[in-house]
């Protein structure tokens, strides 16, 4: 029974950090509740998604993260863009 309480609080802490970093609350709750300290460390190290560099899809002009390789809207294969076309939202 104590294990469930501990798992719940690790899940909650992990999920709150994950949500603050722009990720899924539910997914990080599951990770934290199952892996406990490992999940908590993982979410702290997890990259801040909104600070990732962005570029536009050349086909449909959807704003995408630089690490996205296939456009989720139109399915275009994406290669590394012209550096001038990359936005760095974390650098202001
Ligand atoms: Zn596209």
Please count the helical segments.
3
Strand-and-helix sequence, N→C? Answer: HHHEE
Q: Within the largest sheet, what's the order of strands?
A: 1-2
Overall pLDDT metric:
87
What integer value in Å does the Rg equal? 17 Å
Q: Which ligands, by name, code or SMILES, are bound?
A: zinc ion
Q: What's the number of structural domains? A: 2
Class per helix and strand makeup? mainly alpha
Query: Strand content of the residues, in percent?
Result: 5-15%
End-to-end separation in angstroms reads 48 Å
Helix content: 40-55%
Biggest sheet descriptor: 2 strands, antiparallel
Verbal overview:
The chain is mainly alpha-helical. It folds into 2 domains: 2-46; 50-92, no CATH class. It is 42% helix and 7% strand. The chain contains 3 helices and 2 strands. It has a two-stranded antiparallel ribbon. Helix 1 (2-20) runs parallel beside helix 3. The radius of gyration is 17 Å and the shape is elongated. It binds zinc ion. Zinc ion (ZN) is lined by residues 57, 59-60, 62, 71, 73-74, 76.
Index terms:
92 residues; two-stranded antiparallel sheet; 3 helices; 2 strands; elongated; binds zinc ion
Task: Please outline the helices and strands.
Layout: H1 2-20, H2 25-35, H3 37-45, E1 54-56, E2 63-65
The structure holds zinc ion (ZN).
Structure at a glance:
This protein has 92 residues and is mainly alpha-helical. It has helices spanning 2-20, 25-35, 37-45, and strands at 54-56, 63-65. Residues 57, 59-60, 62, 71, 73-74, 76 line the site of zinc ion.
């Amino acid at each position: 029974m104590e294990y469930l309480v501990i798992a719940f609080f690790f899940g909650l802490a992990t999920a709150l950090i994950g949500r603050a970093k722009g990720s899924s609350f539910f997914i990080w709750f599951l990770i934290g509740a199952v892996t406990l300290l490992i999940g908590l460390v993982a979410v702290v190290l997890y990259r801040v998604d909104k600070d990732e560099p962005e570029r536009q899809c050349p086909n449909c002009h959807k704003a995408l993260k630089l690490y996205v390789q296939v456009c989720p809207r139109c399915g275009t294969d994406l290669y590394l863009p012209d550096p001038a076309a990359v936005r760095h939202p974390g650098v202001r």
